[in-house]
Amino acid sequence: MKSLRVLDPEGVERRQRRRLKRRRYVTPGPNFLWHVDGWDKLAPFGFFFHSAVDGFSRRILWLEVGSTNKNLRVIASNYLNALLQLGGVPRRMRCDRGTENTIIGTLQQFFRWHDDDHFSGSGSFIEGKSTGNQRIEAWWSTFREGGGGWWINFFKDLHDCGLYHDDYLVTECLRFFLFPILHHDLYLVEELWNTHNIQRQQRLEEESGKPDVMFFTPEIYGTHHYLVNVNIDDVNMCKDSGVKLIESRAILTMACLSESTTASSEEEKKEQRLIDVMFLCDEWKSSKGGLSTFNREFAINLAETTTGSLKIHCYVSQSDDRDREDAKQHGVNLINAETVPGSRDPLDWLKIPHPTLQHPQVVIGHGRKLGTPACHFVRTTRCKWIQFVHVFCEDLGKYKKTTSAATDTMEENEEKHKMEIELCKAADAVVAVGSRLQQKYSRSLLNVKVEIITPGIFEKFSSESKLAVNRSVVKKFNLFMFGRATFEDLSLKGYDIVANAIGSLGKNFELTFVGSPPGEHQNVEQWFLNNTRINRNQLTIRGYCSEQEELKMMFYQSDLVALPSRTEGFGLVPLEAISAGVPILVSGESGIAEALQEVEGGKAVIVESDEDADEWAQRIREIFEESVEEREANAMKLRENYRKAFSWRTECERFKAMIERLMQKEHADDEVNITTGGSEYYCESGKKRKLTATENLRQKCNTQMIADKSVADSVEGLIGAYLISCGYLGALRFMKFLWLKLLPEVDSDDGIDSLAENSKSGCYARFWPDQTNVTATQGKGDMVSRLTSGLENFENKAISYNFQQKLYLVEALTHASYHENRVTPSYERLEFLGDALLDFLVTQHLYFRRVNLSPGQLTDIRQALVNNNIFATLAVKHDYHKFLKHMSPKWLQTVKNFLERVEDEVEERKHNRPQTVTADPFIIVSEEEEEGIEAPKVLGDIFESVAGAIFLDSGMDLTKTWGVYYRMMKPYIDHYSVNIPRNPIRHVYEEDERADFGKAKTLDDGKIQCTLRVHWGEFNGKGTNMKIAKATAAKLAIERLEKKSLQEHSAVYEED
């Protein structure tokens, strides 16, 4: 060909002009374009086939056989059944110019006529030559090569053998016998085709995979569904109306093309433009408080604020006629879920869409309980999902109690927190109730923007004037607390704090607690009397209040409403009390306290100490000493100021804008061209033009696809290059250039831009000068002295570093269970800092000191050094555990078991492997018991928290921090740099690709046992969970393999 171009260029050019150019088929996603056509190869024998294929996924939407293709009702029913099954219509549809397809085109335009996108109305239907309907034509060709060709030969053989005559009776008999067989055959063909794997073709740039996967999960291929929602009632009307309506195509077409001027038509258009928003909740009334109260108020206010743009539905598991009438009066459509056979959990019923609203555009879930039904709902209806979060479970676990000694509430709530995070990551948007939860979830959800909704005033409590209470007769001061008196929440909610405060104030002060479970009044009263200083004469116990009017009356009876929770996501009861014009006091560890910080006069009702009953008593006495008129005036003023700061209208308008952004994002790619030509589009100054063939070829040749990870790795490499060349401050400023704003704005001529200053490890400490100012000791000198007593031994013997600010060390060694420390928080924040510090310092040391190792080897060494097992072992070796301040007997036993196992490991290594260090980076195993044990996490945590404390105390000096920890970690760094460790499970698979970890089983003592089978034997591993059991079995197998290899080498040596 190259020679011909040289010898006869003109002839080659002439021949190329007559050559058929292959064009490229492009469609952006599933349900953007359906291809519909019939197949009449068996028409001479009385069998007519009809099918539709999705253009993007090549999935068969229907494949039917009938006795005619002239009956429009039969053809239309295939199309309508597909719409009912999928819940919508495709963006566009393409058919041949056959009479059997005209009714489908008319229906498609009818359903798409009132939409406002580029392909709505008549643009939604394409009618042309069969050569342009390539997807369905290609499918019929494939079908003929397979099962269709067999049926053609079958009928030809019948005809050739004289068994078939073109007779009405013979044809009907054949249909009677063969229709069931053909239907079953076509069903199998459809199933096989939709689940087979379409291979990628080298010359064609189109997606490959299984049609079902491509159709139902387009997100894998970087696209989304283009299905357009349709009114199911319209589809059923067309299906049930019979031949008369469907065959009146002219009437139906005129109905589509005519512009209706009646008021009813305008209302229908307006209704179609509304966005259907569905709230999921277990009830409409607020009998359970908390979540249901918020859900109801938010739905009502959203309906009132967004009339004309959103249509609000509330999908509940149970409701009555009063609930539905009440919701209707507030503009909310209340839908009661249908019961699911075999399930007694009402929340399971919410997972199934209701027939009256099968396809909402937005569904709203709440927390774990209502987030899971929302997830099921989204998978069924493919709508948008907004997830609300109301609590932060890890905080709850610190204070919740349990009746079972075997239950670890912190671990249990950590698992709940993980479930919350999983739901948030799966949702399209996350909304926190109040700024406190927004801050906490923003840290847990990386690269996810957490929106915020702050509840406004509850008008049902403030709409009526407050009922008068004769304060001249009532002499005693009555404080009310509301909640649920479950055993696990009594400490969490801080009821004991206020009870102690009331007890210390004397007989003129009374406490009314509202929230006792039925039949538990005496038990709740006994808990207060046993655990607090309150007297029986000061205490009144009432049952949980589920009626709004009754709750309002209780507010009017109270002199003060308190929320003393040790931690609270938001706290709706104080907001209800504010709405009723009642004085309140709230804990500083609550979400409503964060909101009140922004309200004029709000700080006056916040009690910063969440443990000090004396401070609560003082604040209660101050309110008591105010006159009745002054208290009421302050409460009314607080209500008005809160209304100004947070209004339902403002919050709902912001939420509406968020929903509209979600919907716009869904339709952002709608304007995609689907022509079969090979040219791309070029945009310039808002105008589109097609690229020429030369430009298109040049664009393809000059374009190279780069994976996202490659780009991310390159950016990380650039940051590392700046760190090496320009020092710490230089790297931080480069990250600021990348819009990773880690530093505040500073003057460019501040005189510290020299390379020497940039390379100094503490050069950026000046940006956070307040970090080393500890002001929490005011008025608590005795407590500080007690907390710091004895820590000199830790400084001198364990770490060889003397702290300037002793409270940093106190904080680093304080466990969350140690309530005696009221000066500093627990070690969690310092542990977060120390974890990052040690990871960075170890990485830096390995990079500069081990230049002969590959990146993979460096990663393996860092993984072995920076892990909980090593840190915990080092913490024990240097006596960290002896100085930890805690009040957890269970933890003491855990550490004791770990110490014994470490000592056994040390002795075993001294006898068998004296050249190795005394710690395993992955797991410690007892060969006799075949049981593995993981190091207690708290030991590793305090090892990291002390590193964070040294860093802050030294003025953020990395050199000093690493100097302390390098001395402790040096033996492990040196050993692992020479003997690079491998994960035992990975090691097993490297030695035996057919290694099999059998099915785990639970032993009588509750532990998990796992059996590993490899070619050199069978090994059992035990542990508290499956992960430890597998690692134990793997390590035992590797140790046996090493011993076996050593014995073989010894035998060979002796023979030599």
Automatic annotation (TrEMBL):
Domain DRBM: 1021-1043
UniProt-recorded Gene Ontology molecular function terms: deoxyribonuclease I activity; metal ion binding; ribonuclease III activity; RNA binding
Gene3D superfamilies reported for this sequence: 3.30.160.20, Glycogen Phosphorylase B, Ribonuclease III domain
CDD domains: GT4_PimA-like, RIBOc
SUPFAM superfamilies (alphabetical): Ribonuclease H-like (SSF53098), RNase III domain-like (SSF69065), UDP-Glycosyltransferase/glycogen phosphorylase (SSF53756)
Presence of keyword Magnesium: yes
A GO BP entry: pre-miRNA processing
Coiled coil: none
Keywords noted in UniProt: Hydrolase, Magnesium, Metal-binding, RNA-binding
Entries under Pfam families matching the protein: Dicer_dsRBD, GT4-conflict, Ribonuclease_3, rva_4
Gene Ontology terms: cellular component: cytoplasm; nucleus
Residue ranges annotated for the RNase III domain, each copy included: 797-955
Name of the protein in question: Endoribonuclease Dcr-1
